[in-house]
């Protein structure tokens, strides 16, 4: 049953990476282009490969007759686990929706929460800290 959870997590990570990367810079002026998208066709291809393979792994675990098909007790435990998760999610949904978007972004993203201009907040490093770091590396 843990293999299902790992497969779903792998799918999610690869899908997010696929959405982040772009094939080319053709749509740079397109208003529907995603903010923060990175032009990296090889990485986009690898993330697409990860999405496809995770779907394959998921099907191997779920489709009856496949070599990795989960046994009945595992499927029952998985169904109970999903039901418990759905119940907890639905009971907390109202309180989550009451949190303002800006505050929720801060909770989830921390310092990486986007400002109103769509750019992450800039952190300035004092020049004294840079000088001290460079000096300490030079002394080694």
Automatic annotation (TrEMBL):
What does the record give as the organism's lineage?
A: Bacteria, Bacillati, Bacillota, Bacilli, Bacillales
Any transmembrane segments, and where? Answer: 6-24, 45-63, 69-91
Q: What organism does the UniProt record list as the source?
A: Tigheibacillus jepli
Q: Which UniProt keywords apply?
A: Membrane, Transmembrane, Transmembrane helix
Name it: Uncharacterized protein
